[in-house]
Amino acid sequence: MSESLATSPAQVALAESERLLTRRALEIGLQVEGKPNYAGSIFAGGSDTPSARIERSDLPNHVRGLQIGRYPVLLTLLPEAPDEEGMSDIVRRVRNQCVVARSYLSPSATVDLHAILVGPRGSEGVDRWRALALIAERDERVARKLVWLRPAHAGADEQSFDDFVKRSFLARPWITDAIFSMAPLDNVSRATPYADIPRDTAGEWIQAASEPGIDTDQLVDDLVASWQRRSGQ
């Protein structure tokens, strides 16, 4: 690879995105391994013949393959311009790349395959880009697709990426420094008058919720019925 290619804006964007992805994965205890075969053009077990590969012109121009914990991941770039035709073309190419990657996975692992598409600098907060990102993410054929739209300034990348991963397989909402106190179900019966929950209604709610094996739909109906016949109504 030539030095100019290695330091092209696209390669720099891809490398920085991989760094952020790796950092987040390691923070939550997931191992990261490069998987060049996922990002190749030849199917598993095939040779460099037309029947065993996909033409490079039908694959993303810039893509990297990773294994993050149990998740196979393809990392690639969106086009520079917010153009619907360009977006459709890159989504098509990403689907093709996912087909290649899937050939290296066991049947049970294919459901965990993700493609992360990185938007150009300054795409975050742009309505046109948000609309196109939704189009890409709604296409769940072959693999799940997630779009990270990058902010205008590189200094905001880490916070932007942290916000992005909150809706990805890297999210860990149960890991928190927040302190929670126990809230026994009986506390419902101690509700203040300001909550407008009569004591007899609270008692009925507790009784309904404590029924073993109750159907959830039936529980909702019982709670609503109890509220409708609450004291003074």
Q: Unreliable stretches, pLDDT < 50, 5 or more residues?
A: 1-5
Structural class of the helix and strand makeup? Answer: alpha/beta
> Mean pLDDT, nearest integer?
87
Instruction: Give the neighbour order of strands across the main sheet.
Output: 1-2-3-4-5
Number of strands: 5
The end-to-end distance, rounded to whole angstroms, is 78 Å
Q: What is the beta-strand fraction?
A: 5-15%
Basic shape = elongated
Q: Name the helix and strand elements from N-terminus to C-terminus, one letter apiece.
A: HHEEEHEHEHHH
Helix content: 25-40%
Largest sheet at a glance? 5 strands, mixed
Radius of gyration: 25 Å
Number of helices: 7
Report on the architecture of this protein.
- The chain has 233 residues and is α/β, with parallel strands linked by helices.
- It contains seven helices and five strands.
- The chain has a five-stranded mixed beta sheet, sandwiched between helices.
- Helix 6 packs antiparallel against helix 7 (216-228).
- The N and C termini lie far apart (78 Å).
- The model is unreliable at 1-5 (pLDDT under 50).
Topology, please?
Blueprint: H1 3-6, H2 9-27, E1 32-34, E2 63-68, E3 71-77, H3 84-102, E4 114-118, H4 127-138, E5 144-148, H5 157-165, H6 199-210, H7 216-228
Parallel strand pairs: 3-4, 4-5
Antiparallel strand pairs: 1-2, 2-3
Helix pairs in contact: 6-7
Short structural description:
The protein has 233 residues and is an alpha/beta fold. It is built from seven helices and five strands, in the order ααβββαβαβααα. Helix 6 (199-210) runs antiparallel to helix 7 (216-228).
